[in-house]
Amino acid sequence: MTTATQTPAKPVGGSINRPNLTSVGTIVWLASEVMFFAGLFAMYFTLRSTSPELWADESAKLNVWLATANTIILVSSSVTCQFGVFAAERLQPRRAGGVLDVRRWGMVEWFALTFIMGAIFVAVQAFEYAELVSHGISIPANAYGSAFYITTGFHALHVTGGLIAFLFIMGRAFVAKRFGHFEATSAIVVSYYWHFVDVVWIVLFLVVYFLK
């Protein structure tokens, strides 16, 4: 009597890879954040439509060149953040060469540079707030001040949250005995958030500083 051993057939086209639940959850959460900022934009345009003369007078006080330079810094931080993701994907938490050898930087070095650029963005925005307050633009002053500080202020809070996340990821890289896929996934998820914050600012920058 003979017995036959049946080998399970392999699925056509290779194995099925399930999506990472952490990444999917982050994308769903960011989708809700899109709705949040959509509400802020709706508020901004509604107030603007009711007070066009006020908007024309107050927006003329904005320092467009300072905001442009600050925008370049924030957008550039997305590039450095992505280089950090590339290092995390190859499971390289820290540099493999000298400090000035950027080609051999690890995730920590790229994320540290991203953190510095993001911190500069927040600091410059705080300076701009102080400058605008000195010109009479404040939250209780008028509808423009309320709309400007609420929209840009909430974005600044999101940037600050991203900076805290970078500190957490870099700290975990130093604490972890072995930098593996779990740590790399956390870094990738934070990059999703940071890129989202940058894209929101680009739209916000165009609307607040250039849309007349």
Query: What overall form do the CA principal axes indicate?
Result: elongated
> Regarding quaternary structure, how should these chains be classified?
single chain
Structural class: mainly alpha
Radius of gyration, CA atoms, in whole angstroms: 23 Å
Give me the strand/helix succession. Answer: HHHHHH
Mean pLDDT: 87
Q: How many β-strand stretches?
A: 0
How many helices? The count is 6
Q: What distance separates the N and C termini?
A: 88 Å
Largest sheet: none
Query: Poorly predicted ranges (pLDDT <50, ≥5 residues)?
Result: 1-18
Helical percentage:
over 70%
Strand content: under 5%
Explained architecture:
There is one protein chain. The protein has 212 residues and is mainly alpha-helical. Helices cover 73% and strands 0% of the residues. The protein has helices spanning 21-50, 52-59, 64-89, 107-134, 143-175, 181-209. Helix 4 (107-134) packs antiparallel against helix 5 (143-175) and helix 5 (143-175) runs antiparallel to helix 6.
